[in-house]
Amino acid sequence: MKITVVTSGLGSNYSGGSVHVSNVIKRLTNYFDVEFIPSINFFVSNRNANTEIENIRKFNIKIPDIYNSLDFSKLKPSFLPYSFSIYKEYSEKVNLDSDFIYDPDYTTPESVFLSNRSGILLGITLHEPLYPLNQSILYTYYTLRPFFFQSIDYFVKRSIGLYLLTRTKEKYIRDARHLNFIAGVSESTLSSVKAQRIRKYILYPGNGVDKELLSYRTKNKEDYVVFWTTLIPPKGILNILYIVNLLKKRGIQVKVKIMGKFLYEKFKKFFLEYIKENSLEIEYLGFLEKRELYKVVSKARLLLYPSLADGFSITILESLALGTPVIAYSLPTVYSVYKDIPAIKFVKEGDVKSMANELENELKSYKLLNAVFDEKTTSFIEFHNWDKVAENVASIIKESLS
Description:
By secondary structure, the protein is α/β, with parallel strands linked by helices. It is 44% helix and 14% strand. The chain has two domains: 2-207 and 385-401, Rossmann fold, CATH 3.40.50.2000; 211-382, Glycogen Phosphorylase B (Rossmann fold, 3-Layer(aba) Sandwich), CATH 3.40.50.2000. The strands form two sheets. The protein has a six-stranded parallel sheet with strand order 2-1-3-4-5-6, with helices on both faces. GO terms for molecular function: glycosyltransferase activity.
């Protein structure tokens, strides 16, 4: 049984979607003959395309010769999908001979074009919800504090862009003539899709962690909290500053270690200047190699995670696996996954004052730290492993083919 995977690559990084894709697709080779067709974004500004292709082949994943005729390197990176004509040109160059097309991180519509042209059944997985306009605006506003007035241009572009991206994704879902199923990494992610007469599945588990992380767990914590992810406003990098400064004004100095890569120089500048101007004990460690990251996180008292852009949050799952509890916004997608886990404290989305209060309480009480080592949290972590995620995806594809 042969499946064609259409995605932008299999190199995992700090993006939850890419980590999922890398771990799941490599394991699907245990169930199917897998071939990889790169989406257009694979070619855009990618100087290492040929090296990546060779690395993918090492995992017993086939890449058809048609790859050599695909070249979209002259395109510029775009938050929104490209034009209809570009995707049509792409699909006309690719001839498929497989039983099923699977898009493990549906963000752009190449898989839809290929399925429509070939008549082959299609399945897609969503990692982020389809955002309504009011949520796009409100969440973007929340994430820019304390720099909203300096970031109005970003606010307008992000709010409108996120809404247009949702509308485009919805359009291509409606246009998909052979779409067999839509899967979501969380309940709330899937419920954001309004398409009718299409089978829907909640992946359970939706994401996983490597067993290696469990070996770093320790109760011997040091006096700091952590934050790590892709360092963009929607993930909470600016709210962190606001929260820590609120506590400083109350006479509580919180030490924070932050890791990851800034995507915008403008916000990196805001970040560093605000720390200096307000004498905050925030240390930026840059983008760390995984083992170094795990050591830092495992010794932290807490993960402070004011993100408003997650469909599941692998960051939270990894933090729990490393023995570090979490305070996070009650984003519906994230809350639907972790609501029963006692080592996480949720506060209302965008409520920086409540998050500051909960941080202050935890630094005094250690309640969450004790809960991260209890049986309920531990069994949750053990269940969320990549073998189970891949097995779940494989069973859905097999059901579709049967």
